[in-house]
Input
Amino acid sequence: VQLQASGGGLVQAGGSLRLSCAASGRTFSSYDMGWFRQAPGKEREFVAAIRRGYISTYYADSVKGRFTISRDNAKNTVYLQMNSLKPEDTDVYYCAAGSSVYDPTRSPGYNYWGQGTLVTVSS
Output
């Protein structure tokens, strides 16, 4: 599986962005999908995840109520709608795919990673 993230950019605090992650291949629907973010010199941080069967979604406490993860299996794409953005949301955002991820909030469970898209929130 190859993942291509897009949608990052510069936005003012309080604004919104929608990230997209397009996956190659015909088995996208069988993967759990996640979004992580990472600043230079820091560990990769969990943001949100969605199970392959739409059964469950997961969010970091820092983004609950502001971010929404969704997927469109017909388009092989997972989205991250980000509202009420804050300067501390500034990071490079990565999408990830995994088969039957045990703990979707932890990065080692994912097999495939996209290249990252930069989100910058100005105050």
User: Anything to note?
Assistant: The longest strand covers residues 91-98. Residues 66 and 83 are 5 Å apart (CA to CA). DSSP finds no helices and eleven strands in the chain.
